[in-house]
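Show me a record, fold above all:
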Amino acid sequence: MEQAHWAPDRIEMLANLYVVLTDHTYCSSDSEVEKKTWVRYQAEQQIQWHLAIPSPKGTWDIGILSKVLMASTHTQVRDELCDKSEKVLVLYYIRYITDLAGMHRFAFQH
């Protein structure tokens, strides 16, 4: 970062992000939703932060965790995992019904 001529305050902000995230309860959680939330929050914040550097407003202090954004990310991840689970259940149900129908056809044919 120093070789890329980062400003000292930006280096400190980014370092603080990792300190804050490492201390967050989601970091050591056994919950799939919380772990994925933790990873997505960190990735999205870093991307947005880097994109904001050249903007006229500049960046925010990424080292301060946004509880609102973490909660929003948690909701998105939870909903995506629920949608995925529901789709898997529907596919299993369709397969079950298809197999059941096939067994009935076989039973009536013999």
Notes: The mean pLDDT is 82. Residues 8-109 form one domain. The chain has three helices and no strands.
